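Record pair follows.
FIRST:
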Amino acid sequence: MPFSDYTCEEFVEVLASREPVPGGGGASALVGALGIALGNMVGSLTLGKKKYQAVEEEMLQLKEKCKRLQQDFLYLMERDAEVFEPLAKAYKMPKETREQQEEKARVMEDVLMDACMVPLEIMEKCCEAIELIAEFAAKGSSLAVSDAGAAAAFCRAALMGASLNVFINTKAMIDREQAAFLNRRADEMLEEYIKTADEIFESVQARLRGEL
């Protein structure tokens, strides 16, 4: 059964168990889905309000983008589990002979690349989500601004969590040039979007405390 069909209780239970999946990558994707859904909620609470009539069309467009991202995150939650299975099998391959060692090394490089690409894509989706959340925080209903701040915090956490799943796999790569390239991609997203998410959160916090 797909993890997205689990109840909240079932998902938490299997996450806490000895089962190899879901793990940090899948959990990060789910947190990202929750984050963008919170942003989407801000849009929903803004629609139909006379005070926000000027941004009605923009909210509708933002909500459409959010809906696609929600689906993307849930798909990536499943994909993260799928790419882990061949990686787990590769780690168990025999390595007694030189031929076995060479074959294991070849297979490992392939599956490690796949295992990196999914969390990198989760990170990319988190960046897209944070950009949308910035719009909701700035233009959405002031009654839901706390949800925009929470959305930014969720997507920030998902971004950071997914990055660790990139780094743990690049660490095991033999091709250090490829590993460095993937690490740079992850680092660039972390540098830009953690800052953006923090700015959103701090702005929301200041508004709620009456500091803005």
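SECOND:
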Amino acid sequence: MSQLRVYLDGIGLRGPGLDGWEAARAILAGEAPLTLAPTVLPPPEALPSAERRRVGAPIKLSMAVGFEAARHADADPALLANVFSSTGGDCDNCHAILETLASADRQISPTRFHNSVHNAPSGYWSIATHCMAASTSLCAYDATFAAGLLEAASQVQASGAPCLLVAYDTAYPEPLYRQRQIPYPLGIALVLNPVRSAHTLAALTLTLGTDAPTVLSDASLEGLRTQIPAGRALPLLQRIARSETGTVVLDYLTECSLRVELA
């Protein structure tokens, strides 16, 4: 890959003490302290009541940030190709299924089963938005955000059309938490455009490299960056919150990082 250039038109953000992009911008800019608190997950928008009753944290989180980013970009969600990127998917549902399989009655609920697949959030997104554009679901362990950003930017370049990236993570209950210690749900959504628009916040040029990832000086934000795969996006969002140009380096593979030049 030489380089990919896209334009960022909209942002959605939900995490501990980060209740939406507008509320979080002052925290990321260093103008207000971060107070860690349980992530607020609003009821999922636009889903029929039957589906709304069945969904868990990953779908509530991914839909909250997805709709926020689309509104921020003044984009029609029904027309946006989308990439959903998560390191673990529905961790609570995984835990419940394993509990059932370890019990005397090993019958899995059909709802739990269909929510266990990794592309369940993208499926609920298509139900809520009536979107029939291309949809991709992926994971790459701690590299999940960078992998999602590369995939979404590649789709924008290849198709010449906007794309929505939704990166989200939730926490496993014990005992799985001991194996994968993600402390809070956190979700980030970006609307990427092939051309500059009236809503463009920054131009992003992506290249691969070997530079060390950018760290955050605020200890609480740095903790979210290192502990939650979706949080690897926070240095990029901090630059945008501060209206700064320059280079941000994001965690990617073991011997490879993702450089993002903001202009």
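COMMENT: The chain has one domain: 9-199.
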